[in-house]
Amino acid sequence: MQIQGAIFDMDGTLGDTVFVSVEAIVRTAFQLTGNHYTHDEIIARFGPTEPGILRQLVPQTQWEECTRLFFDHYEVLHQQHRIGAFPGIQEILDLLHQHDIRQAIVTGKSRRSAEISLKYFSLNGYFEAVETGSLMGSGKKASILKVLESWQIPPETVCYVGDAPTDVTIARSTGLQPISVSWDRNANPTLLAQQNPYALFEQVKDMKSWLESHLNGSMPEEESHVS
Questions:
Q1: CA 68, CA 121: separation in Å to the nearest integer?
Q2: Cβ proximity of 110 and 132 under 8 Å
Q3: Residue 63 neighbours by CB under 8 Å, 6+ apart
């Protein structure tokens, strides 16, 4: 695989933010309605942005307030849990930059929550584009196509790095090479492997080693990798 571009998912891929996203939604919904939702119940609603999920849980008259409260909780949780990028992620991004590989983010998160997380990840400045979700749904396919249109490079030379089985499906539907990662606590490597991604990594260091081999031309073009 010739790599000219890399597009990254965010939650569970660049940093451990699935927990803080879900917990901030749980706290906001409870504060406004008194209803307590489990993390699994919230994760089952993933698709829209976080404010979009909350609109399913609180009355319309509270939509504006719930958005404000969510972002307050979201940032505080980053501080309380010292959320940052997964160890080794910055080294991967530096490696790609050194080889002039174009980089972007396509996430189902809201614009504001993505900005908050990138600040705590200390990763601002690495990505040419940060495409975010919508209140109605993530729209990842359209976002990927938007990035490809701006880059004007063959999609088969671009990888999409994500931690969910749906990321593999979306990558393939846009002609990208799917790279699955399962270093997040919520990832399921068995389900990811069943999607037969181009490569699957359980540790950040293994992906970095694989990229080094690819970028230095020491790995056969057609060789996929599971680690």
A1: 22
A2: yes
A3: 51, 54, 55
Nearest to residue 160, comparing CAs of 195, 185, 190?
195
What 3-state class would DSSP assign to 10? coil
* Cα angle value 181/51/185 (rounded, 5°): 25
Q: Which two three-digit tokens encode residue 48?
A: 């829209």
Domains of the chain: which residue ranges? 5-15+84-226, 18-80
- The residue assigned the tokens 């409260």 is 69
The percent of the chain in helix, strand and coil, each rounded to the nearest 5, is: 50, 15, 40
Cα 178 from Cα 196, distance rounded (Å): 9
Residues 165 and 140: beta-carbon distance below 8 Å: no
- Give the CA radius of gyration of the chain: 18
pLDDT single digits (tens) 58-103: 999 999 999 999 999 999 999 999 999 999 999 999 999 999 999 9
Distances (CA, A) of 19 to 133, 165, 197: 18, 18, 25
Whether 151 and 5 have beta carbons less than 8 Å apart is answered as yes
CATH number for the domain whose boundaries are 5-15+84-226? 3.40.50.1000
Tens digits of residue pLDDT in 114-143:
999 999 999 999 999 999 999 988 799 999
Count other C-beta atoms under 10 Å from residue 150's C-beta. 12
This prediction has a pTM of 0.92
